Fold these 3 entries.
Entry 1:
Amino acid sequence: MNAALWLALAYSSNLFADDCRACHAAIAESFSRTGMGRSITERPAVSPATFYHALSNRHYTFTAGKLKRHQVDAAGVEINVIEKSIDVAIGSGNHAVTYAHRTGQGRLLELPVSWYSQPKAYFMSPGYDAANHPGMSREVLDTCLFCHSDSPRPAAITCRRCHGDASAHLSKPARGTIYNPKQSMEVCLQCHLETVSRGISDSIRQPGRSVFSYQPGEPLAAYKLYFDRADAPQPRFEVNHAGYRLMQSACFRKSAGKLTCVTCHDPHTAKVRDACNSCHQSLHARKENAAACPACHMPKRTAQDAIHVAMTDHWIQRNPKFENPRQENHQPYTGPVVPFYTKADPLTLAVANVREPSAASAALLAKYVERNPANASAFVSLGKMLIQLNRLSDAEQRLRRAVTLDPMLTAARTALAVALGRQGKLEEAARVLEAASSSNPDDPLVWFNLSTTLRMLNRADRADAAMREAVRLQPGIR
C-alpha cells in the first residue's frame, strides 16, 4: 500500500471532537494530517500481497480485509491455517502500520506482519522476526495502546491528549480555561519517554492509576515512575527513544528547561521549526542553513527493535557515530535498573529490580500488592513467583484474586490452573482452562495446558483435540 492511499484512508476515518473544530477548524484540519491525528484507522484497506517468513517457516497472504497464515507439509498441502480479519491499523504510515484483529470476545490481537513505508513492503512486525514469535495470539493491551490511541476503544489521538478536559473552556472560551501544553514537555513525555523496550518495565504506574488516567498538566510522576538500565545509554537506539535521547543532549541539559519538544516541533502541523540558530551563533552555525542541522547532528538511524524504519536520533551530538543493525536485537536486558527522570520510592524501585524468584522477592511483591489491591497484573506476578517457590496454596489465593479483579486476564487463569494442577486439583484446573479457552480461544498456551491437564485426567480424545488446536495456533509449541 502506498503512502498516498494511507493518507486518504486516515483522513476519511479519523474523528475529532466537533466541540474543538467549531472554533479551531484550521488547527483541527492540520492536526488531522499529522501522525498523531492518523494514529488509528478502523477497517483499513490493504494491498493484496504474499509474504514468507523463513525463520518460522510461515506463509502470509493479504487479501481484502484479511490476513491468512499457513505452513506447507512435505506433500505440499497447507497446514496450520489461520485467517483473521484486519479490523484496526495502528500507526499513521509515516514509518509503519501494524494491523490488529478484533476477536468475538472484544480483544485486539496484533498481527505478525506490518507495512513499512520506507521500503514500501511488508515485513514481520517489530519483535516478530524470530523463529518462536507469538503468531496471531499476542493481545494488544491498553498499556501498548495508550501511546497510539485516544482511548481503549481504540480511536485516533485527538485534542484532549495534550489539552485535557475542555469542559471549562467550552463554558468560557478564553485563554487560561484550557491547558496549554507549552507549559510542560511532560505532555509529550507521557508517550515519548520509553527508556527501554525489552527485558524490563521501563515504567510503573502509581497505585490506583489506570492506563488512560493521565491528565495534561499534572506531574508525570503522579501517574507513573520511570526506570532505566544501569549501563551506559550508548549505543542503544530504539524506536520510541525521542524524549529519552533528547534528555541525554548537552543542548537540553544546558537549556535550564528552555529546550522542549515544541521548541522544534509544531504538534498541530508536524512541521519542524528552525530552532538551532536561536542558540548557536558560531561561524559554522551562521554559515549553515539551520534546517540542515539535524542531518548531521540528529541523523536518522535504524532502531534496534524495529529495523525496517529509520528514526531521527534526538540525542543532539557534535559528531554522532553509530552502526545500523541488520537484524532485530531480541536480547532482553536483565541487569539492575535505576530511576530515570522521576524519583522512585524504595519499594517501587526494589520491585522494578526483582529478577529471580526468592523469598525476599516474594515478600517485596506481597508488599507491593498490598499497596495496589486492585492491580490484577501485580497479583499474577506474585502468584507466578509463588508457584516457582512451590508455595502453591499461597499462589492459588493470589491468583484467584487476580481472576476476580480481571476475568479477561488470560495470564491469571492460566497461572491459577497451574497452581491448582500442581496441588492435584486437576478437575478444577481443567474447568479454569476451559473457561480461559472460551474467554481467549486464540491463546495457544491455554490449549497446551488444557491438553496436558486432560491427559492427566485420562481424557485422551479431548486432550488430543486441545493439543491440535495449540499447534495450529502456535506451530512448534512445547
Note: The first strand starts at residue 40 and ends at 42.
Entry 2:
Amino acid sequence: MSTFLIFIKLIKQITLIIMRAKYQKVLDLGEALNIQNGDVKEENGVLKVNGTANTPYEKNLLWDKIKEIGGDNPSDINANIEVADSSIFHRHVVKSGETLGKIAKHYYGNAAKYQEIFKANSDILKNPDVIQPDQELIIPNL
C-alpha cells in the first residue's frame, strides 16, 4: 500500500474519531434507547447514522439531541432513523408520584391532554386520577 493511501486511510479514521466524539451523546442516547439495527460510519466528512427507534417519541429524542449538538440543520451528520411502531407515540412506564397531567405535559407540552392518554388506556384505567407505578401506558399519536 502506498504512503498516500495509508495517509488517506489514517485521515478517514481520524475524521471518524472526531465525528464520533462530537456526537457521542447521540450515540449514547441511541444505546440507552436500545436502537435496533444501528450503524455508524463516516463518508466524506459526514457521520452517517442509521437505526430503528421503537416509537416516534424516541426518534424525536434522537433528533433533538442531534440538533442540540449540531444546530437545526447540521451538515456533518446524516441520520436515517426508522420507527418500529408508529401506531402510537410512545409507551410510558408510570413512576411513583406521576399523574396523567404530568405525563401529558411531558409528551405533549400540555397537561390538559391527559384525557387523550386516559382514553387510549381505558382498558386498564378506570379513573384518570388513579394510576399506579409500573403501569405501562400507551401515549397516543395526536
Note: The chain has a mean pLDDT of 93.
Entry 3:
Amino acid sequence: MHEPAGRSAKQKQVAEAIANELASCGVKMVASLPDNWVAELIETLDQDERFQHVPVNREESAIGLCSGAFMGAMGSAALMGASGLMTTIYAITKINYSYEIPLLLLTTLRGAPGDHHKHHVSNGLYFLPVLDAISLPYMIVNEAKDIPLISRAYHHSRTFSRPVVVALTRDLLK
C-alpha cells in the first residue's frame, strides 16, 4: 500500500503505538488541533473506532471538552502543539486547577534539539519553564520505547486530580 506523501512507515507505527497506549489506559475521546508533527497521529485516532475524535478550532475548546468528558466519566486526552498549549494556561489554571479536574495533554516539544525550524526557538526557550512556573508536571517521550509513559501520565493525572503533559519530540514523531 502506498504511504501518503511525507509520511513514513515509522510515523504510522508510532501513531498506532500511541493510539494503543491511549486505549489501554481508558481514553475514549481525543480532542485535537492540527500540527504537522502529529498529523499521522490525528489521522490514526480519527480512523480508530476505539476513539471519538473531535477536531477543535481553539486549544481552550480542547481543555473544556476534555474536562467535561471527565465529568461524564469518559477518559479523554487533548492533543495539540506546544505553542497552542501555552495559550491555554488560563483555562488550565482556572478550570483544571481550581476544580481539580485531571487532564492528559499530549503536545509536541517544539524548539527542542532535533527541531529544524528556527521559528520554534521561542518554544524551546520557554515551553518547559512555563510548565514549571505553574507546577504542571510533564513527561518527555523521545523514543518509541517510552510510549508507555503516556499511561503513566494518564493515571498520575487521575491520582492527583490535575493535568499532566506528555511532550512528544520530533525524534519520536518524524
Note: The chain has one domain: 9-173.
